[in-house]
Amino acid sequence: MSDIFGKALLDYQHGKYTEDIRTETNISEEDILPLPYLFRSFSEMPPIEKKALQLSKGKVLDVGCGAGNHSLYLQKKGFEVTAIDTSKGAIDVCRLRGVKDARYGDILQLENEKYDTILLLMNGTGIFQKLEFVNKYLQYLKSLLAHKGQILIDSSDLRYMYDEGSIMIPGELPYYGELLYTVHYKQWTSETFNLLYMDKKTFENACETNGLSFEVITMGKNFDYLARLTIGESSHS
To answer: pLDDT for 181-228, tens place per residue?
Structure first.
């Protein structure tokens, strides 16, 4: 079972909800991810997600769309939305819930498309996997932006999870925001995969390197933040 998230989402969609997803990382104990939360309405979303949806404009790409909560909300508001996820089950659920343009695949496979808003929410920097891949992803995301387009992306500074003194300083390897992540659902366990959380300064520096302006829009309660990336005026690319 490689698509554990998809299996769980499909179970919930089909009324077979009996267990929640369990997640763990190399720096934290097992945690519960309630399945109903993955089907939340706008009113149940955290402020960072609400803000991102309120700032969305034009043609929207919802990256790592999950069960399609953000896409459905924007679609109902009249936006043209493309939802994409590497989980086939998640895309099946999106289609069942009424997302008109839901695509199974990797964002790096998108070609010849331009978007006014690219959303990456629920720790959007997670798809970068490791610090070493950030430039590749930022360049690709930048290539998908329409004129005056924006990337709305959230992440968290995991510094708070470390005891003072034992934390790695950003810039040293391994970077403290690089996590190893494992998902459990019922009798299945995923392969361990890489997930990246980025502190604001590290993210801003990466954006600058890639000709993108970085602006923090709002902060959450758990060292999380929403950032808006735009093609910087000083960028010649």
So the answer is: 999 999 999 999 999 999 999 999 999 999 999 999 999 888 899 999
The alpha helices in the chain, defined as continuous H runs, are 4-13, 47-55, 69-76, 88-97, 134-143, 200-209
Does the structural domain 46-180+198-231 have CATH classification 3.40.50.1450?
Answer: no
Contact 196, 183 (CB under 8 A): no
* Residue 130 DSSP one-character state: S
Query: Is residue 91 a contact partner of residue 64, using CB atoms and an 8 Å limit?
Result: no
Closest CA relative to residue 140, chosen from 174, 109, 164:
109
The predicted-structure confidence for 74-91, as pLDDT tens digits, reads as follows: 999 999 999 999 999 999
DSSP-derived letter for residue 59 is S
Please enumerate in sequence order all residues whose Cβ is within 8 A of that of 104, keeping only pairs 6 or more positions apart, or say none.
84, 85, 86, 87, 88, 91
Q: For residues 191 and 186, give the distance between their C-alpha atoms in angstroms, rounded to a whole number.
A: 15
**Encoded tokens for 55:** 């700032």
Residue 180 in tokens: 């190893």
- pTM of the entire structure? 0.93
Scanning the structure block, which residue is given the tokens 């801003």?
Answer: 204
